[in-house]
Specification:
With 249 residues, the protein is mainly β. Helices cover 7% and strands 43% of the residues. The chain has one domain. The strands form two sheets. Strands 2, 3, 4, 5, 6, 8, 9, 10 and 11 form a nine-stranded antiparallel β-sheet that branches. Strands 7-1-12-13 form a four-stranded mixed β-sheet, with no helix packed on it. The protein is globular. The chain has helices at residues 144-151, 224-232, and strands spanning 30-39, 44-48, 54-60, 66-81, 96-100, 104-107, 114-123, 125-134, 160-166, 169-175, 179-191, 196-202, 235-239. A hairpin with a 2-residue loop joins strand 9 and strand 10 (169-175). It has two helices and 13 strands; from the N terminus they run E-E-E-E-E-E-E-E-H-E-E-E-E-H-E.
Length: 249
């Protein structure tokens, strides 16, 4: 499966299947690797709640017209690559490490901090890239996908759902975005016997901004193409063992 763009991680919405490595990984020793999510929102800030606390909402744009309350993305086909050459394609290439192929709902956090959402055993070694896919889930022969859609009918025709308010009016942005993700690690991530963590940061605020940084109305069909393009380029990933939302190097 081809990958392009940038990346994410996950609050598992369906049970994870047995995890298997592609053939000839750099090591047969498997160690735990956690995946976390963080929000990288330039020129955006959490909205202030009552007292000294912050709400879970994310204010977008200098005028504060747009407030995001939740953002969910459906991801499948997650793999790690030992090289920066040929892409993982699900055929068992030696450079690829299968993480999980089942569809997952990623609840992207909208506040500061890092949220660990998945931990899986992977082969020791050095990884250059994380590949994944965002897209609609179709019925499969083994019933896995149809079970997912049955459990989450709101994602039968959508791969991304965002809720919030625009100029005080509630909105739901739902889109069948279909894209392959190719997240390059710089520097590469080395997984050893010590537990490791990869953080995927998502610039959620950038999804709904125009070139000047002003907030876009998610409900306006005229903005759909710009929003889809912004989503595809908003992901990044890096090694983050201390889970502070910053690259270890």
């Amino acid at each position: 499966m081809h990958r392009s763009s940038r990346m994410l991680i996950l609050a598992a919405a369906v049970p994870l299947t047995a995890l298997t490595a592609c053939s000839d990984a750099t090591s047969t020793n498997r160690v735990p690797l956690s995946f976390s999510f963080a929000t990288k929102s330039l020129n955006a800030s959490p909205s202030v709640g009552t007292g000294l606390s912050y709400s879970r909402d994310l204010v977008v744009g200098t005028a504060g017209d747009l407030v995001l309350k939740s953002a969910q993305v459906v991801v499948d086909g997650i793999e790690l690559s030992h090289t920066d050459g040929a892409l993982c394609n699900g055929t068992g290439d030696f450079q690829c490490e299968d993480v999980d192929q089942t569809p997952q709902i990623v609840d992207v956090p909208l506040t500061t901090g890092v949220k660990t959402q998945l931990t899986v055993p992977v082969a020791e070694g050095t990884y250059q890239r994380l590949d994944a896919h965002i897209g609609l889930q179709e019925n499969g022969e083994n019933g896995t996908v149809s079970a997912f859609v049955t459990a989450h009918p709101e994602f039968q025709t959508n791969s991304i759902i965002v809720k919030g308010t625009y100029k005080g009016k509630d909105f739901t942005y739902a889109s069948p975005v279909n894209t392959d993700l190719e997240l390059h690690f710089n520097p590469p991530v080395t997984v050893t016997t010590a537990s490791k963590n990869i953080t995927v940061d998502v610039d959620v605020a950038s999804w709904f901004k125009d070139a000047s940084g002003a907030a876009l109305d998610p409900s306006d069909p005229a903005n759909a193409a710009v929003i889809s393009a912004n989503i595809r380029k908003s992901f990044g990933a890096f090694g983050d063992d201390n889970e502070d939302g910053k690259s270890d190097n």
